[in-house]
Inverse folding.
């Protein structure tokens, strides 16, 4: 036997929808009144049919409906096929209204569907932001890569014009310049890839022996420039939960910077330790190097922002550090004064 | 003839210096944006090859300051740039020419030798 379906049966089904199905009509006074409003969103906002039946559009909202919303509904009542999205607080609702003409073709009623598209809108905005950042990055990276490329071109041109130069007294210098330029270009590409890895990294936390990791990183740094005598002070027993591979990147960048910017001191001093601040513990990497003005303390974390043109660098490292630390839900910040050394503080999670 | 190269990229500075020295130029270099005017005054170059984007450099301001100097105000300045989009106002800023990186050596030599405005990026 076939079961007949009543209006209540249909409403039962409608109520399990996460969104809203509605029905409204034009009153004799020209205002728009609600006759039906059901679904998960109606429930969430306390705007189900039993609560709002007979209320006008303005009465549905504290302070009345916006002129834009009135306009959207008026268009629906004119029979326009018109899909629109409106914002309420931090939520976004997409409306799919549809006019229902009566037998004479007059539109007295509009039915429709309202979906919560907040996730979609936020994803679209994040995507647009990521695209803008990517554009800026490609623009700046291609600009920076042109420098070593131009230098290589110069050297090749020099050899094309004066092939004898290679066997002459300048030969060694030319080859040295070439390999230096290639190394710099390689460093830049390496840094860009690290930044890209940091952007997309999935954090897999594990217990990391930060003291041992720091000593390991220092060994790598010192093998690059063995001539420098540095007073390293690495606190014993530092361990934390972090992604081991990404934690290495953080220390490579922060300890590497500390070494670079203190390398012109007679006795570079670099310290990595845990400190107790007013709002909780943090790690601190400090050096006695050239430092920077506090005006630069925030911009130095932006991609390609460089403070010291007399030190080599790609302007990418600190931005990589910040990305990684933000992935850990932590924070990183800097304190310094020109000539007074620098302190970089970080936390690997919320306080 | 003496050329001053001002660029924070050491690879560019050193390779351009070698090239120009081979062509018989006297070359001095500066890799920071500090003391550019003092260096011009001290070295008295015939031509300055000036990178347009260096940390801490306000190029229009630098050129304005240079042009207002009595002794060195008419020094020929060619802008070095890897990014043409940033540089299309070079004439307005008071530079004598634009040399796009990477450049052809012959273009650079022609730009240095020329006495009028030059723009190597506009070459067909």
């Amino acid at each position: 036997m076939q079961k007949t379906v009543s209006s209540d049966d249909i409403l039962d089904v409608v109520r399990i929808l996460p969104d809203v199905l509605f029905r409204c009509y034009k009153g004799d006074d020209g205002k728009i009144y609600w006759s039906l409003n059901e679904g998960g969103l109606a429930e969430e906002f306390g705007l189900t049919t039993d609560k709002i039946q007979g209320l006008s559009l303005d009465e549905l909202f504290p302070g009345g409906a916006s002129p834009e919303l009135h306009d959207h509904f008026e268009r629906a009542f004119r029979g326009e096929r018109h899909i629109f999205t409106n914002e309420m607080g931090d939520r976004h609702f997409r409306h799919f209204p549809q006019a229902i003409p009566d037998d004479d073709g007059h539109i007295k009623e509009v039915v429709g569907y309202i979906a919560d598209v907040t996730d979609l809108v936020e994803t679209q905005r994040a995507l647009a932001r990521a695209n803008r950042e990517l554009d800026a990055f490609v623009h700046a990276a291609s600009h920076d890569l042109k420098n070593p490329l131009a230098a290589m071109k110069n050297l090749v041109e020099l050899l094309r014009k004066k092939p004898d130069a290679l066997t002459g007294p300048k030969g060694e210098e030319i080859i040295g310049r070439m390999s230096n330029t290639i190394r710099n270009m390689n460093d830049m590409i390496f840094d860009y890839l690290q930044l890209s890895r940091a952007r997309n990294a999935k954090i897999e936390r594990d217990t990391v022996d930060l003291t041992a990791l720091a000593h390991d990183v220092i060994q790598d740094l010192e093998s690059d420039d063995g001539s420098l005598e540095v007073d390293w002070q690495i606190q014993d027993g530092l361990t934390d939960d972090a992604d081991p591979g990404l934690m290495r990147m953080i220390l490579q960048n922060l300890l590497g910077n500390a070494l670079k910017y203190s390398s012109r001191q007679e006795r570079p001093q670099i310290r990595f330790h845990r400190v107790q601040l007013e709002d909780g513990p943090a790690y601190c990497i400090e050096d006695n190097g050239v430092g920077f003005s506090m005006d630069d303390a925030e911009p130095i974390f932006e991609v390609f922002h460089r403070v010291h043109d007399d030190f080599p660098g790609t302007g990418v490292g600190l931005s990589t550090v910040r990305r990684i630390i933000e992935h850990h839900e932590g924070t990183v910040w800097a304190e310094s004064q020109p000539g007074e050394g620098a302190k970089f503080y970080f936390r690997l999670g919320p306080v | 003839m003496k050329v001053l190269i001002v660029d924070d990229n050491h690879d560019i500075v050193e390779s351009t210096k070698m090239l120009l020295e081979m062509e018989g130029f006297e070359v001095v270099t500066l890799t920071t944006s500090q003391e550019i005017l003092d260096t011009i005054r001290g070295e008295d170059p015939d031509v300055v090859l000036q990178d347009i984007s260096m940390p801490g450099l306000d190029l229009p301001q630098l050129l304005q300051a240079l042009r207002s100097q009595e002794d060195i105000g008419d020094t020929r300045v060619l802008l070095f740039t890897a990014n043409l989009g940033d540089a299309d106002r070079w004439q307005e800023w008071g530079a004598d020419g634009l040399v796009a990186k990477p450049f052809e050596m012959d273009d650079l030599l022609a730009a240095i030798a020329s006495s009028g405005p030059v723009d190597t990026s506009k070459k067909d």
Q: What stands out?
A: Strands of chain B lie at 2-6, 26-30, 47-51, 76-81, 97-100, 118-119. Chain B is about 35% helix and 20% strand. The first helix of chain B runs from residue 10 to 22.
